[in-house]
Design a protein that fits this description.
411 residues; mainly alpha; two-stranded antiparallel sheet; 16 helices; 67% helix; 1% strand
């Protein structure tokens, strides 16, 4: 008789590859300024979720993950509930936005189940890291061409960075991928060289994208990852110092190759967030008008002109603060649900190192809208779901036997 456990593990790994493929597809087709790339990504994640549900042997859920699951379920149905109770000021826009949020809920649940297995999760993370690095290289090549061409072939918008229509959404992918590279470099189970090289490329691409917040958050991820590795005794202090020096040198060299002039100019701008402060003020007035159930998901752009306090002769497409915009569109309870979801991932995010990007992107969301597109949104919710069952031992290092020497594990 054959054991069913290897088959279950094989199935989980196969689905992990499929999930990574769906997320890579969502990034790869994201460059046209049209709706069909989002539709492709949403359809793909829905199909994968359906196939998993039909083939699943069980549903992984424990008491510790219950708050996150409940919060995610309510987040996913918030838009449809606004339509049901007639609280949206623009039902057609809320209906469109609700599709995205339901897809994010599917991505979260699907990832939490597929990636409950450690081997499947590690396979998924490695595929995602390789893919993000390839997209980073393509982005640097694309930004060096004029006029911009997606994949060097397709004419693209001037704002395109890689396959993203907005530099901070590209930076969000880098923020999610960089901790995976640091996890590989600092977990103490293999040579750190590959992980350091991955991080250097991701950092250089973020510098080339001119995302100030992205550069700062990647640097913060490096500091946090190094501190976690030292605290958990994965590497000795001397090794950490050598790795830190090598990584800084690599990142600096890669950044010089990518071209640091534009990001330096951005850091020297005076009052770079003045317009965002005014947008925030208008958004706060929106929140005050409908604080409990919001104006309807996806309605900010429609409502903004009524609350505008200045005119820059441009279309204000977003509030440039996801958290404020969520409160305006979904109400304060919706923001509380998002906060519950983020807080639920904190412990696993810090203990695993590779999950640090989930928190960093939410910090980035305070001053911009890095996840307000299908590709970065699906990436974020998938990694948040992957953290649901991810646990690392509190501290590593050799265990001591009763005699004081290192104990031998079971064969």
């Amino acid at each position: 008789m054959t054991d069913s456990r290897p088959m279950s593990e094989h199935r989980a790994r196969s689905f992990a590859i499929a999930l990574a493929g769906v997320l890579i597809l969502s990034v790869a087709v994201g460059f046209p300024p049209a709706y069909w790339p989002s539709a492709v990504a949403i359809d793909a994640i829905a199909l994968l979720g359906l196939v998993w549900a039909l083939r699943a042997d069980s549903f992984a859920l424990d008491a510790s993950s219950l708050p996150a699951c409940v919060a995610m379920a309510l987040i996913a149905v918030w838009g449809p509930a606004q339509l049901l109770f007639g609280s949206s000021v623009a039902p057609w826009r809320t209906a469109r936005a609700s599709i995205d949020w339901v897809a994010y809920g599917l991505a979260f649940v699907t990832a939490s189940q597929i990636l409950a297995s450690e081997r499947a999760r590690h396979l998924f993370l490695n595929i995602l890291l390789w893919a993000a690095t390839v997209f980073a290289v393509l982005a640097m090549l694309q930004m060096s061409t004029s006029p911009p061409l997606a994949y060097g072939i397709f004419p693209a918008d001037d704002s395109l960075v890689g396959t993203f229509l907005y530099k901070n959404q590209f930076a969000a992918m880098m923020e999610l991928a960089a901790p995976i590279a640091l996890w590989r470099a600092l977990r103490g189970r293999e040579s750190p060289v590959a992980g350091l090289m991955f991080f250097a490329v991701l950092f250089a691409a973020t510098v080339a994208s001119t995302s100030r917040a992205g550069v700062i958050l990647l640097a913060a991820e490096f500091i946090c990852a190094l501190a976690i590795a030292l605290y958990r005794r994965r590497i000795p202090l001397r090794t950490a110092a050598v790795l830190a020096g090598g990584l800084v040198a690599l990142a600096a060299l890669a950044s010089v190759v990518a071209g640091p002039q534009r990001i330096i100019e951005h850091f020297h701008e005076q009052h770079p967030y003045s317009i965002r402060y005014q947008l925030l003020g208008s958004t706060l007035r929106m929140i005050a008008e409908r604080p409990w159930f919001g104006a309807g998901m996806g309605t900010w752009r429609l409502l903004y002109p009524r609350f505008a306090t200045f005119d820059i002769a441009l279309v204000a497409n977003e509030a440039h603060s996801d958290w404020a915009q969520w409160a305006a569109e979904g109400g304060i309870p919706f923001v509380c649900l998002m906060l519950v979801l983020v807080v639920s991932t904190l412990r696993a995010g810090f203990s695993t190192t590779w999950g640090l990007g989930v928190l960093m992107v939410m910090i980035h969301s305070l001053i911009d809208y890095p996840t307000r597109a299908a590709a970065p949104g699906l990436l974020w919710f998938s990694l948040a779901g992957a953290l649901l069952h991810a646990r690392e031992p509190s501290r590593s290092g050799p265990r001591r036997g009763r005699s004081g020497g290192p104990s031998r594990g079971l064969p």
